[in-house]
Amino acid sequence: MRPLRRFVPWGRLVKSAALRQFLSFAAIGVANTAVYYAVYATLNLWLPYLAAHAVGYAVSVTGSFLLNSYVTLRTRPTWRAFARYPLSGAVNLVGSGALLHLAVSGLGMDENLAALAAGVAVTPLSFLLARWAIVSGAAATRRAGSRQPPEEQVTEAASRK
Fold first, then answer.
1. Which of 15, 18, 93, 138 places its Cα 20 to 30 Å from the Cα of 46?
2. DSSP 5
3. What is the average pLDDT value for the chain, to the nearest integer?
4. Do 55 and 43 contact (CB within 8 A), yes or no?
5. In angstroms, rounded to a whole number, what is the distance separating the alpha carbons of residues 82 and 71?
C-alpha cells in the first residue's frame, strides 16, 4: 500500500518545519485555553474573578511558553525569551480585538462568529512573534553567555555557514 502523502497534495507541506511548528503552536494554543479556563473556573470558586483571571492567565502563559519552547521550537527556554514571549499574546489580544470590532461594527457579523474568526485570523502573526521571542531570546542568552568578544562571535558564526 502506498503512503498517504503520495495521495495528499499537501504532504510535503506537513513535512516542512514551519508548518509543523505552526500546527504545534495552534494545538498548544487550544490546550492552553483549556488550562486557563480550568484554573480560572476553579479559583473563581474561592477568589474574586479578576484575581482568578490573573492567576489563570499567568499559569497559561507560562505553560504555553514552556510547551512552545520544548515542543514547537525544540529549544531550551531562557529568561530572556520568557520576558519577550508575552508580546505575542498582547498582539493577539489587540489584533483580534480590532478585527472583532471591525467585523461586528463594520460588517455586521454575529459577535460569536466574529470573535472566532478574529482569533483564527491573528494566529499566524501571534505564531511568528512567539517564535521570534523564543528563538531570539535563546540566541541572545547564548551570545551573552559566550566569553568571546562580539566580533569573534560573528566571525565564528560566519565560518559555520
1. 93
2. G
3. 80
4. yes
5. 15
